[in-house]
Amino acid sequence: MNEPIHGTRSRYKAGCRCDDCRKANARAQKEYRHRARCYTSDGTPEIPQRVPAEPVVEHIEKLIASGWLKKDIATDAGTKASTISGIARRKWPKMARHIANAILALEPLEPVAVDPVVVERLVAGKDWRAENATHAERVAAARLLTPGQWDRLGLNRRAMERAS
């Protein structure tokens, strides 16, 4: 019977536990894990499943600055709000590629035009109906009023928290 030579994985699999065979087995296992991680079963290179989170963090900051809420980012990206919060707090240096792609696909909101005359009338309580104003105009007016006066604009505390 022909036994494999020392210092090979084959000899290790045959039962030898000398230092050379153990090192050969460790090398072979390391190469196997690398191939399994970086290549598909047919040998073609695979795209990494985890990507750096920093570009996504910057994009989330831009989205939030433009008016997105974290829960809306999460909903549109197909994940949980806690995941978005963790990414935004830089909790993880890397993240799942599919979530990163979904977040990076979101566009910042365009600024909404607010008519200052409408906001003035809403704040003054003049003969102007809040229903005729856009949501952005009502929110702009409400920021100049006390919370007790928000009702006449058709806004409540929850609407104002979402607008912040």
Helix/strand layout:
Elements: H1 9-13, H2 19-38, E1 50-52, H3 54-66, H4 70-77, H5 81-88, E2 94-96, H6 97-104, H7 116-124, H8 135-142, H9 157-163
Antiparallel strand pairs: 1-2
Q: What are its keywords?
A:
single chain; 164 residues; mainly alpha; 434 Repressor (Amino-terminal Domain); two-stranded antiparallel ribbon; 9 helices; 2 strands; rod-shaped
Short summary:
With 164 residues, this protein is mainly α.
Task: Note down, in words, how this protein is organized.
- With 164 residues, the chain is mainly alpha-helical.
- It folds into three domains: 1-46, no CATH class; 50-104, 434 Repressor (Amino-terminal Domain); 116-163, no CATH class.
- It has helices at 9-13, 19-38, 54-66, 70-77, 81-88, 97-104, 116-124, 135-142, 157-163; strands spanning 50-52, 94-96.
- The chain has a two-stranded antiparallel sheet with strand order 1-2.
- α7 crosses α8.
- The longest helix is centred in the N-terminal third of the chain and has 20 residues, at 19-38.
